Write the C-alpha cells for this entry.
Amino acid sequence: MKKIEEARKEQIVVKKRLNETYEESEWSKFSTVENELENIEKSLNERFSKDDSDCSDSDEEKPVKTLYCVACGKYFQSPKAFQNHEGSKKHKQNAARLQTAADDEESESE
C-alpha cells in the first residue's frame, strides 16, 4: 500500500511540474484568434464593398429577372423552380383563393 501511495504522490508532483511549465501554443490563444477574425472581417468588408459597387453598375446594364408568385408571395431564382412551384398543391389552393377574392371584389363593384 505504501508503494502505491508513494507512486500516486509522485505522479501528482510530476503533473504539477508539467502544469507549471505548460505554455499555451500561439495558434490556440484567444487574442490571436480574435485578431485573425478581425483581419478576415476587414478584408471581407473591403472585398464586398467593392463588389457591391461593381454589381450596381452591372445591374444597370443587365436587368435582373426575378420570378415572383403573387398568390403565394414567394420569389424564385430560376424558371424551373417557378414552374415546379406552379404545379404544387399549395400554389393551386392559393391561386384559387386569390381568384375567388378577385371575383368577389369584381361583383361588389358592379
User: Anything to note?
Assistant: The beta strands are 67-69, 74-76. The longest strand covers residues 67-69.
